[in-house]
Each structure stands twice: as C-alpha cells, then as structure tokens.
Design brief:
CATH topology of the largest domain: TIM Barrel
Strand order of the largest sheet: 3-4-5-6-9-10-11-12-13-14
Number of domains: 2
Strand content: 15-25%
Order of helices and strands: EHHHEEEEEEEHEHEHEHHEHEHE
Mean pLDDT: 90
Largest sheet: 10 strands, mixed
Helix content: 25-40%
Structural class: alpha/beta
Length: 351
C-alpha cells in the first residue's frame, strides 16, 4: 500500500486539481485549506462542511502530520519551553517569551544543527533533518494558543532563533512565513518576524533578491575574522568581508536595518580591539546591536564578560551613533535561554 501523502504539502492549486480529479467541486480546496491553515484543525473528521463520504476519502488518501507538545516547562520568569514531537518521533524545542509589551515565539527550523558554533548547546546535536513548513507553522500555532490560554494576550512577534540555521532550510522557512503572514493563515505582519542567521552571505543576497518583508538578524559575536573563525567555523567559508558585502546588498535592496546579536565573553571578545572592530563594522549600514547575556552550557572556556566590558561596548557604539542594548536572557532555569536549546529533557532520548 502506498504511503499516504501529507495533505499540507499540497498547494491550494494542487488541492484544487485533486478535487477535480475525483469529481468534486474546485471550491472544496478552499474549504480544506481554511481548515488546515486558518483554523489549524488536525483531523479530517473535524471538517464539518465536507460530506462524511468526502472526509472518509481524504482519510484514506492523506494524513495531517501535526506536531505534539510532549512536554511544557514553565520558568519562574514566565517563559514557556515546549518539547515538540514531530510525526517521525524526533524532537525540537520552541519557546514562548513574555514581556510587558509583547509575547514572542522563538521557533526552530531544523532538528539539530550542523554549524558547530562552539558556544551553543544546539550545535552539539547532529543535524538530523530540516523541518517542513507545516512543522514550523505548528510551533507558532502552539505558542499562539499558549499565549492566549496562559496570558490572555495575543502572540505579537516571532523570531527564528531556535534550533538550526534557517537559511539552510530556505524553501521551507519562507513557505512557513508565507503561511504565517497570509490572511488565509495566521495573518501576522512580516514586520513582526525576525529571521536570525549566522551570516550565510549567498543566502542573505537571495533573501534580498526575493524581496522578503521580514526582519533580518545576524549572530555576529565578533567583527574580527581571527576570533570569529575560532568560535564560529562557518566564518571560514563566509568571512566577514563577504558577509559585509551581502549585508550592504541586503540594505540596498530592502532598506531594512539589520540587528546584530552579540554575546560578550570574558577573554574572548572583550578587548578594546574587539570593541573597535564592532563599531567599525556597524557603521557600514543602518543597524542596531543586541548585546546578549551569555548562558553557560558547561564549565568550559566561555564565561560571561564583566559589566565593564559591556559598558565599554555600549559607550563605544553610542559614540558612533549605533543603538545598542543589553538583552538579559529569560528562561535560564529551564534551559530555554539563548544558546541553551539542546533537548536535555528525557523524552528527547527516543528521538
């Protein structure tokens, strides 16, 4: 017996063709599309404006490979971390981050990661596969529901800063964002979505050429190649001059400023030459800098820099007109903070 196809892998046009092929009216495609994406239903049985016979036929030919939140952990600061089980048993993590003004969903794009950043817990997991567009979408829906159920407030922002490198799953990530922003999906503004990348120059150029409307963030962490080569091996193939050229191209095409995510570590990137290099890099195009509190993943070489180093960064960036803020991480007590997502929960052992 042939394996059933996930119905959410079909475009609306493909759905329309399917219904025509079985003698049904083309408008059935619109009805099913709304059930799947706008209403987020997980079974054909719930599609009550379809006949029982048609629902059974869909059941015989298709599946809906929805995610399941296997474990939900709540931090003392209100952050929620989800261990999300995929249809094949693999696990990813996503995070709800509440503040006074917004609720942000931090979303994963891959199972594991292949980039080997030495300071990141996710990098210790091998990359097993890319997430499908519907698996990315479902993470957002789960957090949207948690925001409403636990906080009585809507989801306001989405960041692709969870497990994986979004630009190494380009097609599925952009397809998911299209569904998230579509009026036939969640109807969120693309300006409330930020995609974070380690800085894949070629793919940043592709984003610009594709005229995306969402925000771009770059996990920079050093503006010196000799430092970045050591802590982020991808820099060997995407050195800073190439990244700079791609970012100039991005701004030329989109007129959208870039956010640099930047962790300051003791004895790694806290020297005056590191600060000067970042200030120089930031003058290239309009940008802002988030100086991020480090969240240790072991007793290794990476330790949070002292407050004086952060102040030196802030003062130097201010002198050249760059907006910079120190971001204090949330969810540290449940390993939900930046760089800590690594499937430490026991259920991940079955993935």
């Amino acid at each position: 017996m042939a394996e059933k196809k996930d119905i959410r892998a079909l475009t609306k046009d493909e759905l329309r063709e399917y219904f025509i092929s079985i003698g049904e009216k083309p408008f059935r495609a619109q009805q099913v599309y709304e059930w799947l994406w706008q209403k987020g239903h997980k079974s054909f049985e719930e599609m009550t404006n379809l006949s029982l016979e048609l629902r059974q036929k869909l059941e015989e030919n298709f599946v809906i490979n929805h995610i399941r939140v296997d474990e939900m952990q709540r931090s003392s600061d209100g952050t929620i971390k989800n261990a999300v089980r995929l249809h094949d048993g693999k696990i990813v993590e996503s995070v709800l981050i509440p503040t006074d003004k917004r609720i942000t969903a931090c979303i994963s794009s891959q199972v594991g990661c292949s980039l080997d950043c030495t300071f990141c817990a996710t990098a210790r997991l091998k990359r097993m596969r890319n997430l499908n567009a519907d698996e990315i979408y479902d993470q957002v829906v789960a957090i949207k529901n948690e925001a409403e159920n636990f906080y009585g407030r809507p989801l306001t922002n989405i960041v692709f800063m969870g497990m994986g490198e979004p630009l190494m799953n380009y097609h599925n990530v952009l397809n998911a964002i299209d569904k998230i922003t579509s009026l036939e999906g969640l109807g969120m503004s693309p300006k409330r979505i930020t995609l974070s990348t380690v800085g894949l120059a070629k793919m940043i150029r592709k984003l610009a050429d594709d005229e995306v409307k969402f925000r771009l963030a770059v996990s920079l962490h050093s503006a010196r190649d000799e430092v970045r080569d050591r802590i982020m091996p991808i820099n060997l193939k995407n050195p800073l001059p190439e990244l700079a050229d791609a970012l100039r191209y991005w701004y030329q095409k989109t007129k959208s400023k870039v956010t640099y995510e930047y962790v300051v570590w003791k004895d790694i990137n806290d020297k005056p030459e590191d600060i000067q290099a970042l200030a120089k890099f930031c003058k290239m195009i309009p940008c802002k800098v988030n100086l991020i509190e480090y969240n240790p993943i072991d007793e290794g070489e990476f330790q949070q820099a002292d407050s004086q180093a952060l102040n030196d960064y802030l003062n130097s960036l201010k002198e050249v007109g760059i907006v910079a803020k120190v971001r204090h991480s949330r969810g540290k007590d449940i390993d939900a903070a930046c760089g800590q997502l690594a499937n430490k929960n026991e259920i991940a052992g079955t993935a």
